[in-house]
Specification:
Length: 377
């Protein structure tokens, strides 16, 4: 029993490009412009319009509606983009369907031609049978005449000659019948072998065609799946990278905000406690060191070495590296004995590496904003 192949079913979604006459459209190498689509639509509408038919002829309404439907879908950019996204699958289904339909039409045409050839052969066989029948009848008549002649001869011959003649005639007739039967069987066997060979060749060609079509479809499906997988992985990687970048920027922004707020708080605290001291902070550490080394009656300055870093305009360069226990004058954290810090060359205040980097970045940002607003660098 002949099974129905899935591609024999007409695809549900129409091939709009094929309906507008673009039979060679390829989604990987050709992009049809909207102007060409409109020109093709106008040409087909004029050709299939019901008013163009002669009186008495029916208008091709189905073709007219199909052309309108294809143009309505392709002239809109959004609907066309959605349609083009799945057009490779639609085009593949329609190509398979048209190929199978063409093969079925060819098979039907071959079947009709084979039927006509069989009818012609049957007629030829009928004529040959009639001719053989006529020859047989003629032979019978001749045989009857020969028998009558034989009877006449028998009247002149003896009984032994009559028996021998009858036996010879029977042997010749039997041999002739055997030869004819053998020739007929040989001819039928040859025809059967030839038909079997043709049938096997046709089956092998169909099997190879189906196998090639299946392999091609599987290859396209695998390529499409691989391309979709790579695109999805790239999108996921890009999304993860952007999320990580956004989280990192948010984390740095929060850390920077916390550092700025803490520094401003400590600066305001010392400013409230020691107002008027900024004019005396220069040389505060040297004065304190001299006061501790000598026992003179010099009075202690109002700005100590611990207070000087909060009133010093720390330079961007020249910070020396120090190792040991120290307190960061920005964040107030006390570093351990096995920690590295930076020391200001003007006020000898120490800062941790992160706070020093934040301070340099803040100064550069302020200078850049002042420069953009028209001030000096």
């Amino acid at each position: 029993m002949k099974t129905r192949h899935p591609f024999n079913v007409k695809p549900a979604k129409p091939d709009y490009y094929f309906d507008l006459g673009f039979s060679t459209f390829n989604d990987e190498h050709t992009y049809i412009k909207a102007r060409d689509i409109k020109n093709a639509w106008l040409k087909l509408v004029k050709h299939h319009h019901p008013d163009k038919k002669r009186p008495g002829e029916d208008g091709d309404a189905a073709e007219f509606r199909r052309v309108h439907e294809a143009y309505d879908c392709l002239r809109d950019e959004h609907s066309r983009a959605l349609y083009d996204a799945e057009y490779p699958r639609i085009r593949f289904d329609w190509l398979c369907y048209r190929k199978l339909a063409s093969e079925e039409q060819d098979a039907a045409r071959h079947e009709i031609e084979a039927s006509e050839v069989a009818n012609a052969r049957q007629e030829e066989a009928t004529r040959e049978a009639e001719r053989l029948k006529e020859l047989r009848d003629r032979w019978k008549r001749d045989e009857t005449n020969r028998q009558w002649e034989f009877v006449a001869k028998c009247n002149r011959r003896n009984v032994e000659e009559l028996a021998e003649e009858q036996a010879r005639v029977v042997r010749e007739r039997q041999a002739r019948e055997r030869l004819e039967d053998a020739a007929r069987r040989l001819r039928e066997l040859q025809e059967e072998v030839y038909r079997e060979r043709l049938w096997r060749q046709d089956q092998e060609q169909q099997r190879q065609a189906w196998e090639e079509m299946r392999l091609k479809a599987d290859r396209k499906i695998r390529e499409l799946k691989a391309r979709l997988l790579v695109e999805r992985e790239e999108r996921e990687f890009e999304r993860a990278r952007r999320d990580e970048e956004r989280r990192r920027e948010e984390r740095e922004r929060r850390q920077w905000q916390v550092w700025v707020e803490e520094s401003e708080r400590r600066i305001r605290q010392y400013e409230q406690s020691y107002r008027g001291a900024p004019e005396q902070f220069l040389g505060a550490q040297e004065m304190e060191r001299e006061s501790t080394q000598t026992d003179t009656g010099r009075s202690t300055p109002s700005v100590t070495a611990q207070q000087a870093p909060f009133y010093c305009r720390h330079p961007l360069t020249g910070w020396s590296v120090r190792f040991g226990r120290a307190e960061c004058f920005f964040c107030g954290r006390v570093k351990g004995w096995l920690s590295w810090t930076r020391q200001c060359p003007k006020c000898d205040g120490r800062a941790c590496l992160k706070c020093k980097a934040y301070y340099i970045a803040d100064i550069m940002k302020r200078r850049y904003r002042r420069y953009r607003s028209g001030g000096h660098w």
